[in-house]
Design brief:
TIM Barrel; 477 residues; globular; eight-stranded parallel beta sheet; single chain; three-stranded mixed beta sheet; 17 strands; alpha/beta
C-alpha cells in the first residue's frame, strides 16, 4: 500500500484511543492508538461498566478465551463503580511480571487495535515510548495479534524493536535490553517474552508490522537505519514544538526567562541527510495547515504527523469539560502551552497545556499528595547487593531519596501516569477526591480556532483531514 500523507499522532494516555484512530483510518490515513498504560486504561473502563459494550465485543474475538474471561472476572463491574469509589489496582510492570500482568497487557493492546480496525480496511498504528520498556514486548504481541499495521516509537533510541517485531512475527521469543542504572555493557539486563507462554501449541500466524522510529536528528536516524537489529521502515521527524515528551536541546541546558528549555539551530533536523537514507519520513510539530503540508512534501517528506489538532476533536479521549475549557481559552486568545523541563520523571522536557485546576496549576500541584502506584515511568537501578530496585522522581521525596535518588531531582516532578489517566476520565480516587488531570499538547494549541465552526467550537477528525487535504479526503476510503 502507498504511504499515508497524514499520520495521526499517538497522544498521551488514551487521548488517541481506538475511536480517534478509527475515525482517521477510515479516511485512508494512518490512525494511531496510544499503547501507554493500556492495561490500566482498560481495567478501569471495565470497572466503569464497559460503556457501550465495546471491550466485551473485542474480548470475544481474542484468540485465548480463557484469558479474556479471567480479565473480565477480575475487573468488570456491572453498571460501573459508584461515584468516588477507588479503582481496583492493576499489577505494576516489572522485570519479573506476573502472569496476570502479561496477559492483561497482551489482551489490552489486542482489544485497542481490534476496535480501531473494526469494520474497515484502513491502517492502524500503535504508538509506544521507548522510555517505558517493561510492558513493550507483550504490548507489541497483543497489537500484532489484532493485525496492527505500523508500530511507532520515540522517547529514546529503539534499536531493538525491529528485531523484536521480526521474532514475534515468526512466533519466537523476543528479548529487550532494559536500562538499569549500575549495569555494565558486559552484563546487560534482558527481558524476554515468549509467545509460547500463551500458545503452547498452534501459534497464530502473524504479519510483521512496519516500524517507524520517532526521531529529532539526522544522527539518530542514521544510527537506527544502520545499526538496529532489524528493518526500520521510516521515520517521524519531530520538532521541539510537538506535544508530549520533547528531545532535550543539544548542549548544556539553557532556560528562557519563563523557565522553558531554549532550542537553537543545532536542534533543527538535517532533512537532506535524513532524505539520503532512502527511507520515507514524515514531519511533525505544527504541521496541520495545508501550506505546512506542502512545505513538508517539498522537502521530500512522505507527509506529516498531526497530533494537537486531533487532540481537541470530538473523537479524542480528553473528557468533554477539559476540551470545552481549552477551547474557551483558544477563542479568547489566552491559551498557553509550557515546555516544562521538570514535569516528567523521565527527565525529558514535557509540554503542558496551562489550565486552572489541573497539575499545571501551582496551587493544585502542591495540594496533591505524592504517590507512585502505577509505576510506568519508574527508573530501574542496581542495588549494592546486586538486586534491582525501582524509583520514580515523582514519588514521595523521602522514598525517592531512600532508594538512592537525589532530592533535587524530585523537585517539580509530576505524576504523569495518574495525571494523564485523569485527563481521559479515568482518575483514581483517594479519600474521596479524584487525581488531577495534566494535559499535554503541542505549541499549536493556541492556533486551533481555525477548526472551530461559526456556531460551535467542536470539530471532528474528518474536519482536520478535510482542512489539510480537501473536501474529498475525509470520505471513507
Amino acid at each position: 500500500m502507498s504511504n499515508p500523507v497524514i499520520i495521526q499522532g499517538g497522544m498521551g494516555v488514551a487521548v488517541s484511543g481506538w475511536r480517534l484512530a478509527r475515525a482517521v483510518a477510515v479516511t485512508g490515513q494512518l490512525g494511531v492508538v496510544s499503547g501507554t498504560l493500556l492495561p490500566v486504561v482498560q481495567a478501569r473502563v471495565l470497572q466503569q461498566g464497559d460503556p457501550g459494550g465495546h471491550l466485551r465485543r473485542a474480548f470475544d474475538h481474542f484468540p485465548l478465551p480463557a484469558v479474556a474471561e479471567r480479565v473480565w472476572r477480575d475487573y468488570y463491574v456491572p453498571g460501573g463503580l459508584p461515584p468516588g469509589v477507588a479503582f481496583k489496582a492493576v499489577p505494576m510492570p516489572s522485570l519479573e511480571p506476573s502472569t496476570a500482568f502479561t496477559e492483561l497487557a497482551v489482551l489490552a493492546n489486542f482489544a485497542e487495535v481490534w476496535l480501531a480496525k473494526e469494520g474497515h480496511a484502513g491502517r492502524i498504528g500503535l504508538n509506544l515510548l521507548e522510555k517505558i520498556q517493561l510492558p513493550t514486548l507483550p504490548s507489541l504481541y497483543g497489537a500484532m495479534l489484532a493485525g496492527v499495521d505500523t508500530v511507532l516509537m520515540g522517547a529514546g533510541i529503539p534499536r531493538s524493536i525491529p528485531g523484536a517485531l521480526d521474532a514475534l512475527a515468526r512466533g519466537e521469543a523476543a528479548e529487550l535490553k532494559i536500562d538499569v542504572e549500575g549495569d555494565t555493557p558486559e552484563a546487560p539486563t534482558l527481558l524476554r517474552f515468549d509467545p509460547r507462554s500463551l500458545f503452547p501449541a498452534n501459534l497464530p500466524a502473524l504479519a510483521r508490522p512496519q516500524f517507524l522510529a520517532i526521531i529529532s536528528s539526522a544522527t539518530l536516524a542514521a544510527t537506527l537505519a544502520r545499526k538496529s537489529n532489524g528493518r526500520v521502515d521510516g521515520f517521524v521527524v519531530e520538532g521541539a514544538v510537538a506535544g508530549g515528551h520533547n528531545a532535550p536541546p543539544r548542549g548544556p541546558l539553557q532556560l528562557s526567562p519563563a523557565g522553558e528549555p531554549v532550542y537553537g539551530p543545532r536542534d533543527l533536523p538535517d532533512l537532506p541527510k535524513i532524505r539520503e537514507l532512502g527511507l520515507p519520513f514524515w514531519l511533525a510539530g505544527a504541521f496541520s495547515r495545508p501550506e505546512k503540508l506542502s512545505e513538508a512534501l517539498a522537502t521530500g517528506a512522505a507527509g506529516v504527523q498531526v497530533g494537537t489538532a486531533f487532540a481537541l476533536c470530538e473523537e479524542s479521549g480528553i473528557i468533554p469539560d477539559l476540551k470545552r475549557r481549552l477551547r474557551e481559552l483558544i477563542r479568547s486568545g489566552s491559551a498557553r502551552v509550557f515546555t516544562d523541563p521538570l514535569a516528567s520523571p523521565t527527565g525529558f522536557p514535557f509540554k503542558v497545556a496551562q489550565l486552572k485546576g489541573t497539575l499545571s496549576d501551582a496551587a493544585a500541584y502542591v495540594s496533591r499528595q505524592r504517590i507512585c502506584d502505577l509505576g510506568y515511568l519508574r527508573t530501574l537501578f542496581r542495588r549494592a547487593d546486586g538486586s534491582v530496585g525501582y524509583r520514580c522522581a515523582a514519588e514521595p521525596e523521602a522514598d525517592f531519596v531512600r532508594k538512592g535518588g537525589v532530592a533535587a531531582d524530585a523537585a517539580g516532578r509530576k505524576c504523569l501516569c495518574n495525571g494523564l489517566a485523569a485527563t481521559v476520565g479515568l482518575a483514581q480516587f483517594r479519600r474521596g477526591l479524584p487525581e488531577l488531570p495534566i494535559i499535554t499538547t503541542g505549541d499549536e494549541l493556541t492556533q486551533l480556532a481555525r477548526f472551530f465552526k461559526s456556531d460551535s467550537d467542536s470539530y471532528s477528525a474528518a474536519d482536520v483531514i478535510r482542512a489539510l487535504l480537501g473536501p474529498a479526503s475525509a470520505q471513507p476510503a
